[in-house]
Amino acid sequence: MKDDAIAPVIAVMLILAVVVTVILVWNAVYIPSQKQASEIEHLRMVESAFLHFSSDIGDAVSARQDNLQRSEPVQLGGGDCLSSTLRSGGSLLVMDEPGPVYSLTLYDESLNPVNHVNGTLVNLSYEPVGNFWQDQGYRWQHGFINVTKHQTLQSPLDYSTMAEVNQEFNGTASLGTFARSFGSADYTINQSATGGNCSRIVLNAVRLSTSPGHPFVSGNGFGSLKLTSAVNTTRYDRIAAVSVRSDRSLFGNASLESWNSSFGAGAFTCSGTINYVPQPDESRRDYVIGNGKEPLDLILNDARIEIGVY
To answer: Residue 96 belongs to what domain range?
Structure first.
């Protein structure tokens, strides 16, 4: 009789032990694995948003179009699943780079500067908060994306090493093409004049900056990366010289190369209007504009692209 009374108790205890074990395994293994899988998918979506927005920036820089707008949604938090709706968070940050990669200066006939354009850049980053997988973020700068860990370690997303990234700024590679899109000169030949003269020179300058009031956003819902562009066109008729300087970085040197090659083509075709002035400083290019006889229009298209987070 006593054994019969003890048997149900033991059975209940065994059932409770099994239930407790299942609950422990559920909480310690299954739920964390589900949340990690959800977090991995979340970070994949963040990566995709950065790749799309990087392409948007490249398109805006090359288009130099007025009133252009682009936007990419970014899921700030993730890691939620059916068995646990708790979400991680994240933040988006846009910052101006400390200095311009190139500077363009226009001079009047007395060689006084009349306009100065700084070719500036920004960087933008995503940082996770309370991530259920690992502290992996993303940072866009100079046209490429780095994967970040713990806000300090960085490695290129689409390249094997930083040496490969640096090599991309040479020649016709993608990063070099992006950097050269920040500045160029076009010209119109004066058909009624002789001696290789130009009647018009158009300077196309691009700069990136942080959208005022929108440098930072955080939370666990959705944020967005947005860019807007505006082109300010100014006409000059008394410009005597143009000077372009590089900050000596790979990006700045590629931008300077674009200015130099387009001015060089103009100097070859319109030798009576555009003339190169040699300088000992390799990071500087100076050109004399006009011949003092035929009228010359110089137009500056200053494309300003503002990037913000919302």
So the answer is: 2-309
